[in-house]
Amino acid sequence: MHASKALVDFEVGDETYQTWYNIVGDLKSGKRPLVTLHGGPGMSHIYMISHTEIYSLYGIPVIFYDQLGIGQSTHLRSKPAEFWTPELFMDQLDSLLVQLGIERMLAADYVAQRQPPGLHRLVISSSPPSEQLWEESMLGYLEAFPVEFKEMVLRHEREGTVSSMEYQAAIQVFMNKHTCQTLPWPEELIAAFASVEEDPTVSNAMLGPAQFNATGSLKTWSVIDRIHRISCPTLVTNGPEEGAQDYVIAPFIEKLPKVKWVRFAKSHIAFFEDRDYYFKAIGDFLRVD
Predict the structure, then answer these.
(1) Which is higher by pLDDT, 110 or 247?
(2) Of the candidates 247, 246, 238, 248, the residue with the CA atom closest to the CA atom of residue 268
(3) In what order do the strands lie in the sheet with 259-263?
(4) Fewer CB within 10 A of the terminal residue: the chain, N end or C end?
(5) Is the pTM of this model over 0.90?
């Protein structure tokens, strides 16, 4: 399998940082590449590496990269919270794709705000249109756990003791149900969460350390009032037992002018839990002219 890994410059003001990327496949093949955007925020790309399957099955080149502050891109632990904004990451991806000679593209917020002319198709995979809806959804799942479990978790969040072993163990139990039901967790997913623990700068600035109470800059983030601006065909996927459950993604389904919805069987990371169906759904959608 042909792969190319490198670093490219990313300028922010008068400072220059490094973006790490990995291209699987040949960008000169004539096939429009799939650019993967990892989640978090502040989680490395590594958990998405199985998307090389898109190249193996369909010959579509796949581009992975690490956002600033995580993985193999430049880490900036001393930057203040206000440095970390969605616009920063939009600019970073824009810079990367320009240097790779690819017309611009990005996920929902970027597409809605900047409407890049080179975007052919958009995949929104288990992603909410607002942080408020995501938090409401996750708190709803927490209500289904025993009262003492829920109260213990929320007490640690109120008291700022989320680094305690008790809280961390409880969150793992919760995530085994609502983040990834493939047990034991795949090594690349464990590595991605470890990347956040190793450098939580971005995650803490944009979301905060607590699972059910966002305190960072994304607490009030929403793309709902801009969804209608996304004009390209869009595939929205989710599962019934995850944060992006049906009512959470409903604004995408209702407001996107050209939308296809695929619902997988389990929770948040279908490419681990329902691998064959997931990659077929993505591949079929990307290959439609």
Answers:
(1) 247
(2) 238
(3) 122-125, 234-238, 259-263
(4) C
(5) yes
